Amino acid sequence: MDAITADRLRGVAVGAAVGDALGMPLEFGLASHPDHFIKKMRPGRLPAGSFTDDTEMALALAECLLTNATLDTDDLARRFLDWYNSGPLDIGIHTSAVMEKLAAGKNWQTASQEAQMPNPDNAGNGSVMRCWPVALACCWDERAILSNYSRLQSSVTHVHEECLAGCDFINQMIVSLVKGAGIQEAYRQALENTSLPEGLRQSILLAPRRKRDELRNTGWVRHTVESALWGLMNTNSFEEALIQVINLGADADTAGSVTGALAGAYYGLAAVPAEWVSALQGEWPLNSGNIWRSADFIALADKLAVSRNPDARQ
C-alpha cells in the first residue's frame, strides 16, 4: 500500500470524526447564512471538538470488524447494546427503540424489524452515519463483499431498503476514492455497483445539481446522502466541503460525518485542517476515562485496512 492510499484511508477515519465534531454544535439549528458560516470547532452540548454517537457507533462497528473474521452481526448487536447501556448523551429515536428491544432480550433481527413496524416508511440516517469502517476493512475485497457487509451492519438497527442502500452507496464511493478515482468517476462507479430504490436513486442523481437552499439536511438517510454528495461535488477542498455541509444545520453532525468520510477518502488526511485535527476528542469506550484523539483514529484506520488483507501492509 503506497503512502497516498494510506493517507486517504486515514483521511476517512479522521475526516468522519472531525465532520461529526464540527457539526455537533450546529445540530438541530437553522442553516447559517454564508456571511456567518461556522468554520472552527465550537462547544455545543459537548466541549469543542467532541465527537458524538455517530462516531461512537462507528467505533463499535470497527471493533467488531477487527475482532471477528467476518462481520458477526450478533457480536455487533451486543456491542451496540453495551454502548447503549453505558448511557450515551445522544441517540437517535429509531436506534433507541431497537436498543430497548435488545435490552429486553430480543435478538437483533426481531428488534430491528419490530422497531420498524410502527412506521414502515421510516428511513433514518442512523446506519449511514457509522458505515465507514466497513469501507476501510473491505477496501481490498470484491465489491459484492463490501456491499454485503455495508448492508448487514445497517440491518442490525435500520432495515429499510433506503438505509441498506445508502450505506452500500457511500461505502462503494469511499472505496473508489481511496483507490484513486476522481469524484465524478467514484460517483459513477457507486451508482453502477449499488442496487438503489428509485427514490434514493433520484435523490443521488439530483444531488450534485441542487441549490443550497433546496437541501433540507434532516435525519432522513436520503437527505443526508444528498447533502454529503452536494458538498463533496460542489467544492474544491476538504475544508470547504465540510464548512458548506455542516452549516446547513439540522442534522449537521451526521451530514458532517458522512461528508468527512467521503472528502477524507478523496483529499486524504493531509488535507484536513490541522486546527480541526488537534481539537478532535472523545471518550471511548464510554465511562472508561480513555480519551480518543486523532492518533487513535489513524491507528484504527491502519488496522482496519490490513485486517482482511495482510498483503496491504506497507
The quaternary organization reads as: single chain
- Examine the coordinates and then state which fold CATH places here, giving the name of the CATH topology: ADP-ribosylglycohydrolase fold
Counted up, domains total 1
Cα-atom radius of gyration: 17 Å
Which CATH class is shown? Mainly Alpha
Low-confidence stretches: none
- The percentage of residues in β strands lies in under 5%
For the biggest β-sheet, the strand order reads 1-2
Query: Helix count?
Result: 15
Span from first to last CA?
A: 5 Å
**Structural class of the secondary elements?**
mainly alpha
**Mind telling me which CATH architecture this is?**
Orthogonal Bundle
SSE order, one letter for each helix or strand: HHHHHHHHHHHHHHEEH
Q: Report the strand count.
A: 2
What coarse outline follows from CA principal-axis ratios?
globular
Query: What do we call the CATH homologous superfamily?
Result: ADP-ribosylation/Crystallin J1
Helix content: 55-70%
Q: Can you summarize the main beta sheet?
A: 2 strands, antiparallel
